[in-house]
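Bench notes, afternoon.
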Amino acid sequence: MDRGKALKVFAVGILAAIALSSPPATAQDKKLVLRVAHQFSPSDTRYDVKPWMEQVTKATNGEVQFEYYPAEQLGKAKDLLSLTQAGVADIVLFVPSYVSDKMPLTAALELPGLFTNACQGTLAHWKLAKEGGILAQREYAPNGVRVLFSIVTSPYHLISAKNKIESLKDIERMKVRVLAGAMELTMHKLKVVGVRMPGPELYQALSRGTLDGVIFSYGAIVSPSYNLPAKYVTSDSFGSAVLALIISENRWKQLPGHVKKAMIEAGGAVTNSICTGLDNEEADALEKLKQRGVTVVRWSAADKKEMDAVLASVASEWAAELDKRGKPGSEVLKAVLEARDSR
């Protein structure tokens, strides 16, 4: 054997010996670091993604770790979907109605009067948005993402920062922040000027008078993320908002099977715990608003009848409009109602 070949054989032997003498790789040696982003203050625990991250890390014995970017540190709320699709973020908690042109069907969960509490809506969305559901197939997959857990907020109400509200006439021509889709249609029918605006911009808009009010839950009004000015709040349900923790399909395909399993199981657990927390806080939030001197508006019998008629017509009109655009609005609405009533 010549000297060159002898050296190669020797080198191979040394490498083999090292490999055999080294301990097998553990999860600690194979860290998988994922970037998670959202728009909310880190002190706002209502939509906290940390329990989900902690459960995934624990279930994978520390293999999966997270870089955490709250409060729009990685990008604006309206851009979170595109940041996920582009790979800037791996996982985001975002509001589908901020991109209603790309995700119009999720607004079925935001229709007025469908749910009496957060858990009703949240569990209905989770059923339809996880793998195999109609929203997973017709809304999220076409956008290249999948849902890891769901949130549908407690019912939303009309909150006025300054304007006195005693009757339906008083809300006409008010400039009110709405979510696109079902909520926007509702306000239009009540002759309210609906304004689309991401949540982080609301405080400044209300303080400056750019907005007269918002459609929001009581809990959101008093939360650290918003803490908005309010003088009058209604007791009616003007719908809800949907939030979803999503991952791009491309990133999902790169994950090992046991990591996917851990994420799905954590998603189911957190979906339940978050909605329970939202329901528990809503009554406390209303009491806090009353302590601030906020007036709770009760409509007259005539106004209540008019309001109920308007709200009852919104769902069918919303579905019909999407049907005309070639989107399965009626099919999704039917699925939402079935998911709600199957509990």
